[in-house]
Design goal:
Number of helices of chain A: 2
Number of helices of chain B: 1
Shape of chain A: globular
Oligomer: heterodimer
Number of domains of chain B: 1
CATH topology of chain B: Protocatechuate 3,4-Dioxygenase, subunit A
CATH class of chain B: Mainly Beta
Largest sheet of chain A: 5 strands, mixed
CATH class of chain A: Mainly Beta
CATH superfamily of chain B: Aromatic compound dioxygenase
Mean pLDDT of chain A: 96
Strand content of chain A: 15-25%
Distance between the termini of chain B: 20 Å
Helix content of chain A: under 10%
Helix content of chain B: under 10%
Low-confidence stretches of chain A: none
Order of helices and strands of chain B: HEEEEEEEEEEEE
Number of strands of chain A: 12
Number of domains of chain A: 1
Number of strands of chain B: 12
Largest sheet of chain B: 5 strands, mixed
Distance between the termini of chain A: 12 Å
Structural class of chain B: mainly beta
Structural class of chain A: mainly beta
Order of helices and strands of chain A: EHEEEEEEEEHEEE
CATH architecture of chain A: Sandwich
CATH topology of chain A: Protocatechuate 3,4-Dioxygenase, subunit A
CATH architecture of chain B: Sandwich
Strand content of chain B: 25-35%
C-alpha cells in the first residue's frame, strides 16, 4: 500500500474554534478536552461518493418544488467548487437549505411568527459538473430573530453542505448576501478570527448569471481542502 | 498561490430540511457480506442532557476491509450493494441508530493494520465545525494494536469502543458525550 498524502491544515484563524462564547449554543456542546491529533490514514482520505443520478435535475430549482410559485425575490445562486490547488471538484453533491422569504423555516422547531409559504420547502441539491460548477434557482431568504442574545437576528443566509472526494474534505457552511446590515452583528458569521476568510462567505452580485426579467444572480465559490504536495512520512 | 478552504459554519437547528433526503441508517441489503450489527446510542451535552438536534455521518470499509473509493488500491473486492456511507439524525430524545456490518481491518500508518472501525462526523446546532471521532468494536483483540487508539490516553480509549448489549447479539451501544469526565475522544484531522 502506498503512503497516504495528507490534506492541508487550515491557515491560522481561517476556521472557527469549537467554542465561540458569543454563540451561546457552543458553550454546552463544544468539547472541553483537547482534540487528539491523528495522522491521515486510508479511512480519512477515502470518502463517500454518489451516482450523479441520485440528484434529480429539478432538485436544483427550489422555486419549482410545488404547484405554485413561492413568494419572494427569485435569485440564481451559482459558483464553482474547487480545492485549495484550484482544481475543480467534479461530480460532488451540493446540498442547500434555507428559510423562506419571510425568514421562516419549514421545520417544526421554528416558531418564528412569520408565515410559512405553501409553495416553498427550502431544500435543494445539485451535482457539480466537469468544471466544478453548480447552480441553484431559489428565492432570497429572509432575516429572522433568534434567542442567542437580546434582539438577536441572523443575517440572511443559505446553508451549504459539500462532500468533496474524501472524509477529510466534508464541509458545511453558510452563504451570506452582500450589503446585509446584520452581518457585523451575527455571532455565527463572525465566529472566524480572520476577516478575509469570513468575508469569503459573502456571495457577490453577478450580472453574468442574472436572468433578464426573472432573477438576480449571486456568485458563491467554495473551496475544499487540498492535498499536501508530497505524501506524509509514515 | 493556493486558495484557502472556505470557513465552516454550523448546520444550525434546521438541517433536517436539507439532510433528510440522504438519510442512510440501514446499509445492510442483498449481497452485503459480513457480520450484521445494530448500533444505537445517544448524544449528550455538557449538562448530560440528550441533544435533540444532532446528526451523525459514518464512513466505513466493507467486510473485506475495502473502501468503495478510487484511492483504496488494495486487492480486495468492493461489493456493489455496499457504499459504506451512513447518515443518522438523532430523534427528539437524542437517539441515533445504524444497521450495518462490521468492517474488515484496513491498512494504517507504518504498515500497521487498523482494527475495524467506523469514521464518524458529528454536526449539530452549537458546533461551528464538525466533530470527528471513531467507533471501534468490543472484544476485538486487534483494538490493542490499533495505531490510532494507541494515540489516545488509555483511560479515555473506552469512549471510542462500543459496548455489547446483554442478551441481544449484534446490538451495540455507543454514546457520544460532548463534555465532562466521560467526554468522548474527538480527533484533530486539521479542520
Amino acid at each position: 500500500m502506498k503512503r497516504v498524502a495528507a490534506y492541508r491544515a487550515p491557515y491560522p484563524g481561517t476556521q472557527p474554534n469549537h467554542l465561540h462564547l458569543p454563540y451561546v449554543s457552543s458553550i454546552k456542546r463544544a468539547p472541553t478536552k483537547p482534540l487528539v491529533p491523528i495522522p491521515y490514514t486510508l479511512s480519512e482520505v477515502t470518502g463517500p461518493s454518489f451516482e450523479s443520478t441520485i440528484v434529480a435535475p429539478k432538485a436544483s430549482d427550489l422555486t419549482r418544488a410545488h404547484s405554485g410559485e413561492p413568494l419572494g425575490e427569485r435569485i440564481v445562486v451559482s459558483g464553482r467548487v474547487l480545492d485549495e490547488n484550484s482544481r475543480p471538484i467534479t461530480n460532488t453533491v451540493v446540498e442547500i437549505w434555507q428559510a423562506n422569504a419571510a425568514g421562516r423555516y419549514r421545520h417544526e422547531v421554528d416558531q418564528h411568527d412569520a408565515p410559512l409559504d405553501p409553495n416553498f420547502t427550502g431544500c435543494g441539491q445539485a451535482v457539480t459538473d466537469a468544471e466544478g460548477r453548480y447552480r441553484f434557482v431559489t428565492i432570497r431568504p429572509g432575516e429572522y430573530p433568534w434567542r442567542n442574545h437580546y434582539n438577536a437576528w441572523r443575517a440572511a443566509h443559505i446553508h451549504f453542505s459539500l462532500f468533496g472526494p474524501a472524509f477529510a474534505t466534508r464541509l458545511v457552511t453558510q452563504m451570506f448576501f452582500p450589503g446585509d446590515p446584520l452581518l457585523p452583528f451575527d455571532p455565527i458569521f463572525n465566529c472566524t478570527a480572520d476577516e478575509k476568510a469570513r468575508n469569503r462567505l459573502i456571495s457577490a452580485f453577478d450580472w453574468e448569471t442574472t436572468m433578464p426579467e426573472h432573477a438576480l444572480g449571486y456568485r458563491f465559490d467554495i473551496i475544499l481542502r487540498g492535498r499536501e504536495a508530497t505524501p506524509m512520512e509514515d | 498561490m493556493s486558495l484557502m478552504t472556505t470557513t465552516s459554519q454550523t448546520v444550525g437547528p434546521f438541517f433536517k430540511i436539507g439532510f433528510d433526503w440522504l438519510t442512510r441508517d440501514n446499509l445492510v441489503g442483498e449481497g452485503v457480506s459480513g457480520e450484521r450489527v445494530t448500533i444505537q446510542g445517544r448524544v449528550f451535552d455538557g449538562d448530560g442532557v440528550p441533544v435533540p438536534d444532532a446528526i451523525l455521518e459514518m464512513w466505513q470499509a466493507n467486510a473485506h476491509g475495502k473502501y468503495d473509493h478510487a484511492e483504496d488500491t488494495q486487492n480486495k473486492p468492493v461489493e456493489p450493494g455496499f457504499k459504506g456511507y451512513g447518515r443518522m439524525p438523532v430523534s427528539a430524545d437524542g437517539v441515533f441508530r445504524l444497521v450495518t456490518i462490521k468492517p474488515g481491518p484496513v491498512p494504517g500508518p507504518k504498515g500497521k493494520e487498523q482494527a475495524p472501525h467506523l469514521a464518524i462526523s458529528i454536526f449539530m446546532r452549537g458546533l461551528l465545525k464538525r466533530l470527528v471521532t471513531r467507533m471501534y468494536f468490543p472484544d476485538d483483540e486487534r483494538n490493542d494494536g490499533d495505531p490510532i487508539l494507541n494515540l489516545v490516553e488509555p483511560a479515555r480509549r473506552s469512549t471510542l469502543i462500543a459496548r455489547k448489549t446483554a442478551g441481544s447479539p449484534g446490538m451495540l451501544e455507543w454514546n457520544v458525550v460532548l463534555q465532562g469526565p466521560d467526554e468522548t475522544v474527538f480527533f484533530d484531522v486539521g479542520l
